[in-house]
Amino acid sequence: MGQDCTKMVDKCGIRNADLPDNPLFMYISLRKVNAMKEKSIQGKDENDNSVKLSRRKRILFKSIMLFVIPLLIVFLLEMFLRIFNYGEAYRLFVDFPGKEIQKHKVINPLIGKKYFQKLEHTRPCHDMFLKEKPENGFRIFVMGSSTVLGFPYDENLMFTRILQQRLQDCYPEKQVEVINTAFTAINSFTLLDFVDDVLEEEPDAILIYAGQNEFYGALGLGSVERSFQSRPLTLLHLDLLSFRFYQLLQNIIHGTAERIAGDNNRVDVYGTLMKVIAKNRDITYKGEIYNKTVRRYEKNMDRIMEKAGRRDVPVFISELVSNAKDIKPFCAAKTPGYPSAEEQYEEAIQNEKEGDFEKAKSNYYLAKDLDCIRFRASEEINEVIRTLAEKHKAVLVPMQTKFFEQASPHHLIGNNLMTEHVHPNIDGYFMMADAFFYVLAESKLPGEKLDIVYYRNSAYYQKNWGFTELDSMLGVHRVNSLKYYWPYQPYDAPFVDYREIYKPVSMIDSLAMSIIKSTDFKTNEAHLVLARVYQKEKNFYKAFREYQAAIECNPYQVKDYLEAADCLIKTDDLPLALHYIQKSFELQESFYGYVRQGEILIIKGDYEDAVESFSNASKLDEKHENTALILEKLYEANFYKGDVKAAEEALNKLKKINPDFIPRIPEQRMDYVYHVPVQVRDLINEGIRSFNAGHDDAALEMLLKSMEIKETSLSNRITGDILMRKNDKNTLVYFLRAYPDYKKDINFLSDLGTLYLKYGVTEKAREVLNEMKRLDPGNEKIEQLKEKIQASK
């Protein structure tokens, strides 16, 4: 036993020398050793149990890792692809690419690649907006496709540009931004994909004109750019396209498929985008594809409006307009249960001949709906739009029923407002702007009320808008070219290139055809060519109109604004010249712009602002090449301003540069308002002659006629004087329109104050009195107006 005990003790690491030679102690020690051994065995069992538990955890861990590791690999691959700039970010809005404009965003010019992966992608317009929305900002985003983009014209005739100018004019206290997100051949899937990005930019409203491209537009069931039959899969596909790994996977699959298929997969299709994008060409009315497409449109638009509603962003959704009267059905195939589209169209023509215009309208629309080549939205789409507007408390824009139909003979929309099957002509685009403008004004979203002082009708804007004969000709040629191909011609008709067979008959005609023939020659460049021709001919008004159109097409060229301003100065339209100079500063300050602005401000009598303008010009004259010119201008402005010290300081500096300089200050005259634009000069001069001769009615007729063409402060002032003598209630409106250019004229201010009192606006009369005191404290008319104000209490 002693030996066993000794062995056990040795196992426990106790040395024999440490144990006393005592049998009792040996026994006790053995009991302790056995206890330690038992505890050791129990510990081992417990360890075995923990090993068994970790195995279960290991199984769970392995299961999780089977899921996590692929995600980690995808994440690392995504990061790797992003680091090396593979693929596209596909953000809707990006920073302006030029260094000169740092405060703005633009629509991503490459965003179309996300939706067009088999055909060449189309591009959005050049609209920009501030990164930081100003406090007084009123920001609208417009969604749609080629009609919203202004086809067959260029960006200068997009209704969105016209709308922005009208809103800005009528709500001058706001900084209005209307951002057009449209591009050609997209449908509601793209709009739904856009809406989250749009909502992030703090819109005050979203305007929608969309639904014509649901069948053949990108991702439509009849399009070659279709990825999936399933709507959920299509939406998932769009979401995944934001990831570079998915783009890589897609490119690998497409590349492999093309290599396998080789030339067998290539189909040579010539013609317009209409022809090449349509895959499932014949889609019967109320058939499976038709019904599925309408439902997809409804769900997509419903989702868009739901998202906007959650952000409390108002939606203005428009009815769609088609040329039902003057475009016969493209397809003669018969829909089961219905007459053929051609038969229905012929019946509509007969109804029209018989004078039954309501029946004719109904049959024209039904013929359009039965047309199985679906480039025109059916009336069912319009019903969906009306239903969704009511459901989401959105504002319905009655584009078809209250605008285009009402403006068409017998309410039959045709070539009177349309260029072809769905795109408006120039009159039609101005009407679209009109429709959205009125519903916005009625909503009171831009402001509580529309001030009649700032209001001008659509016809006025159309006469003064930036488009010329070149744009009209461009539209004609684009439509003619369109009609040389399917669906206007049989699908298998021999290929004929309109661009090659047409022979231009004038310089303008030739420039329009050059735009169509070359993707490198832009519309704005053609306008600039014409502008320079007219400048050489000394026809500065026509030159300005071409610069104006070029700017509306491409609003980022500072030089174009300054050239336009120069032409306007030469045509005596100083207020508009000042406007174009100030618009150029929004892009980039310039020495030349500040000098020109200062010269106009001197004529206007705004000497303090003129001094500031010349000072700004001096700061930009880094090489001091124009010091003498700036000092001469500063001397003149300070002299008129009455700042003798500053004038002498400028003169002394000037004489150091040019000792022989002799200052020639012309007699001070407030002649700004007598610079009358050339296009209305004869009418206004005739009106003034009649006014001076006491022939008020004849004068009023000439002046009102001139203002239909171009408003001026002079015509407004004289019209106001005539109406004041007639005791007409509209007198105050014309005085207020003249005010910006007469606000330093004491006689005018005295009359304005009297008018305010007449209409009970005493507070405004007091403001005018205070302004008169500031301008000319000793003028006798101040006391006269003061007495009138006191008498009115």
Structural account:
The protein is mainly alpha-helical and 793 residues long. Among the domains are: 2-83; 104-324 and 376-412 and 420-433, SGNH hydrolase (Rossmann fold), CATH 3.40.50.1110. The strands form two sheets. The chain has a five-stranded parallel beta sheet, sandwiched between helices. Strands 1-2-3 form a three-stranded antiparallel beta sheet, with no helix packed on it. The radius of gyration is 38 Å and the shape is globular. The model is unreliable at 1-28, 44-52 and 265-269 (pLDDT under 50).
List keywords for this structure.
mainly alpha; single chain; Rossmann fold; 5-stranded parallel β-sheet
> Cα distance, first to last residue?
132 Å
The Rg value, from CA coordinates, equals 38 Å
What is the percentage of strand-forming residues?
under 5%
Q: Supply the number of helical segments.
A: 33
| Name of the top-level CATH class of the domain at 104-324 and 376-412 and 420-433 | Alpha Beta
CATH topology of the domain at 104-324 and 376-412 and 420-433: Rossmann fold
- Order of adjacent strands in the largest pleated sheet: 5-4-6-7-8
Spatial shape: globular
Mind telling me which CATH architecture of the domain at 104-324 and 376-412 and 420-433 this is?
A: 3-Layer(aba) Sandwich
CATH superfamily of the domain at 104-324 and 376-412 and 420-433: SGNH hydrolase
Uncertain residue ranges = 1-28, 44-52, 265-269
